Amino acid sequence: MKKFQILFIYVLLFLLNFFISCKLDNPNTNKLSSHFVPIKNYHKQNEFLELPKWFVEKPEISDVNFCYAYGAIYYDKKNEKQNLLVSAAVNIEKSKKIEITVIQSAHHQTGKLLAKTKIKESDVEIDESRIEQDYTIVKQFKLKKGILALVAENSQFVNIRSELFSSKIVIIDIQNPPEWVHTPPDEKGYIFGVGIAQDHSSPQNAWLEAEKNARADIAKQVNMKILNQGSDSQKQMWEWMKYNHQAISSVLLENVFIIKHGYCKTDRTYYALARMKEK
Fold this sequence. Notes:
Elements: H1 2-25, H2 31-36, H3 38-45, E1 48-52, H4 53-56, E2 66-71, H5 77-96, E3 97-109, E4 112-121, H6 131-134, E5 135-142, E6 147-153, H7 154-157, E7 169-173, H8 179-182, E8 190-198, H9 203-229, H10 232-243, E9 246-254, E10 256-264, E11 269-277
Antiparallel strand pairs: 1-7, 2-6, 3-4, 3-9, 5-6, 8-11, 10-11
């Protein structure tokens, strides 16, 4: 009986050793090597970003003013929708008419002139009690921590079906900024502004900041045109303010629409392109 037990142990050890050898020799069952295979592909995929086509470039439909809305993801879908509609209402009102004050200041520090720009937009009024009657969410796209939406006013969106809008996802290269950042469009009758924002707490907040900066860029261009056409005393005042390292310009803008968005992973920067029709 004792000999049988010893023989059984030897057979068991032999089978265990044979099984371990097969596992190590077979590359298909090597868990360690298979674990590291996807890493190269993962970095390659991260060179691109997937965004809906309607967010990369705003759809153009006659007599319909679209705007973008941003919101957080809620368990309560009613609150989620309400927040998106409020965001949309604010952005639509800003696109119609907004006064932008740009304060450019600078000071000397260690022999260098350090510049700073502060942008203030006038407040807009919305009626939250009518928000669902006044605005329609056309498309939505979920990010990891938030939602992007394309929204239109109900009064303009009558008889236009949401199915007409593509849900196509665009894969964009994010190693470099979009071409329009360095070379904005040049189209007769329009002024274009480029807005840039560094990485924020969320992509939604960063794109909102970039949109504000794009409107401010148009405001500065309009202000320079006004100054160039103004009296000598206005120009002298502007030069005096610049000499004293502070310049304040306040401009009323109408019908300014955000038409494109972009992102560059290399410097973690978000971009927006605004367009305004010249009067």
